[in-house]
Amino acid sequence: MVKNTLKFIFSLILSVTFNVVAQQGNRSIDSVRNIYAIANVKSDQIIIRWAPPNHIAWTRGNVSGYKVIRYRVNLEGRKPVEAKQIGNDTIKPFSLEEWKSKFPQDHPYAPIAVQALYGKQFRISEQNFDIANIRTLSQEQELRYSFALFTADMDAQVAEGLGLRVVDKNFEKDEQYLYVIIPYDVSQMDTGYVFVDTRLLTPVPKAPNLEKNEMENQIELRWSVENMQNVFTAFWIERSEDGKNWVRLNKTPYIQATQNPNQQDKYIYYTDTTISRNYLPYKYRLIGITPFAELSEPSEVIEAMGRDRTAPQPPVITSIKDVKGKIELEWKIENPPSDLKGFIIGRSNSIGGEYKPLTTQILEPSVRKFTDNSPDPINENYYVVFALDTANNASVSMPAYGFLIDSIPPAKPVGLTGSIDTLGIVRLHWPLGKDPDITGYRVYFANAIDHEFSNLTPYPIQDTVFVDTLNLNTLTKEIYYQIVAVDRNFNHSARSDILKLVKPDIVPPVPPLISDYLVTDSSVVLDIIPSLSDDVAKYIIFRKGGKEKDWTQILVLSRESLNKKKIIDNTVTGPNFYSYALQAVDSSGNKSELSPSVGVKVNQSIKVFQIEGLNASYDSQKKAIILTWMKPKSEVEYYVIYKRVNGGKFENFASVGPDKVNFTDTELIYQGEYQYGIKAVFKNNESPISFSPIVLVKY
């Protein structure tokens, strides 16, 4: 086994160990196999500590023992490799008699170690150790194992008595060694290794600095251990009132339970609940305990005190009302504290929104009434009352709604649209009214236009969409709808114009498709594949984006108009994202599903060069179309005019001088639809093409 181990040593040193030590020093753990080992290098001794990987291996190791072999592995090759046994041939825990002879009965850690080794049942007196501070383990053997390793970290003699420590005092200076911990029972663990460079002494690091959270009648301390894994096992927390005389707050070394065993905690927390009163300053410092039972230098001293964190009782708003266009509110507060500083009134337009203070100064503690002289006349007004004490602790009342008396109804709704599918599902939609205090809509229907309309919505619906279900097995082929807007004071608007819907008698048409698109900074040109259905009467083009959050109808085209298979939307502005979708409507009013939407990006228009106000109108007497436009801001060299007829391609038609702002087209060959485009040519640039509306020419 030694020969095999020797071969492994050289490969280990050359490939791993030297790099690890060079980067991290002797504090690093190099656990090549199951046994975990660390080294503490001093000028006169080298201490080796190890731990079996689990409680089963620990139990077997206690019976069979360990052997420690030291190999000189001079990396420069000047000396031969040398093997030497360190300590006894078999390193095992002390017998019960040895424990009794070497340790007093009141030793803080030896009785725990003996109980872990030889006790019939593992029990720890709370006087000896605060067991509540350790994560409880499910099995007794795991508990024995955990406490044994902890006591080994707390006391060097206990570690030796547990058979988990050896000291090497006979070593050469400026040498490199590899210590090999060999278990005699290899059924549950294998050899452990730790590399040592005697030139690199192991200093005891300074304890991490404390952070504070000053609470009422207690002080929470925390310190970071994120980058100190395996540096400290436990800590002493000390407090002083004068900075000279220090008292330890924990009777036993302090450790914190790990919340997640698979994740290293970033902080350890300790709460001092023994302070005598608030606002009395105390000084705190921390001392770390290493796995070799060494104490670190104290951390930097911090000062902390308990502070008043109790807010006053929350105020209760008892009255809120409209007084001649002003909102007046009153409140009360139960058992106002002696340190009550006063009140602040907050207002918001929504119950869960941000409440902004209405007062620049805190109201006196005796005040119980406040008047808002300028409530929001359009939006909702919610109020809260904050109570503050002299320590700036604050409580807040429940929100209260203050409303102004309103007798003006909303405007009449417009834009009511709807459809009926073959299942008899009616979908109504309308744009949201401009009145900001609208809370909902009521929907009415009738089977005939001369019938009394019935209410479908006993409560106003808070939406601009309504779905109704019809029985299609009736003699009536039409149905009529109206809507009414309702504001927050239940004022009802005039009814909308009547919407007539024809009940479906055939399958809805096949949706059209958007096959391609062209985007400029002022328009979007859509290439369309018309619906395959023969009875399509018209197409509806929808758009959303920019200021339109929902699909908005922007254009309706007849079937004949769409035969040109192009749609131009010159009402876009950039920069914005837009989505387009189409819908086919047949002669019976059946509507197809919306086509798959197409998203486009419109860049910002170059307004300096853009031609605006392009208009085209047909003069029936002159048999001509007259174009007019506004002159751009920059100096124009000349204008280029484009023309297309009945949805054909735009072609270069004419050019005019820079002083022109109108043009007359007398070359009207066909009846039908005419559309024009114009661009301005400048000295070093040219404008985007602006497009006119479509002009219908009939003789």
UniProtKB/TrEMBL annotation:
The keyword Signal applies. Residues 1-22 form the signal peptide. This is Fibronectin type 3 domain-containing protein. InterPro entries: FN3_dom, FN3_sf, Ig-like_fold. Keywords: Signal.
